[in-house]
TrEMBL record:
Family: Belongs to the UPF0045 family.
Organism of derivation: Calderihabitans maritimus
Highest taxon listed in the record's lineage: Bacteria
PANTHER family, sorted: UPF0045 PROTEIN ECM15
Annotated ranges, domain Thiamine-binding protein: 4-96
One GO CC annotation: cytosol
Pfam families on file: Thiamine_BP (PF01910)
Gene3D superfamilies from the UniProt entry: 3.30.70.930
Protein name (database record): Thiamine-binding protein domain-containing protein
Length: 103
């Protein structure tokens, strides 16, 4: 299981607002099976099997192009842990537990 951070940035849009592109990407995510996702103020976090996520990232990368954008920059950060089950919630919980104890 992998946790992946993805940011898809259309370049040269008509306005500085990008929320319409984010919304279109999330419409794609709503239809995706086997991948959990979480919208954050700066990016989207995906959780699932790495092959499925990478395929989905490719699909998301195409969203602004389909809307007429001529240039898109997509940034991907992958956390792929093989020694134990990795989830978005588990990563947050690990930090929260450490916050309860002394350093």
């Amino acid at each position: 299981m992998a946790v992946v951070e993805v940011s898809i940035i259309p370049i040269g849009t008509e306005t500085p607002s990008l929320s319409r592109y984010v919304a279109e990407c999330h419409r794609v995510l709503q239809k995706a099976e086997g991948v959990k996702y979480q919208l954050t103020p700066m990016n989207t976090i995906l959780e699932g099997e790495l092959d499925k996520i990478l395929s989905l990232v490719r699909e998301l990368h195409e969203v602004p192009f389909r809307a007429g954008v001529q240039r898109v920059v997509t940034s991907v950060k992958i956390d792929d842990r093989r020694d134990k089950h990795l989830t978005m919630q588990g990563k947050v919980k690990a930090v929260e537990e450490k916050l309860k104890s002394a350093f």
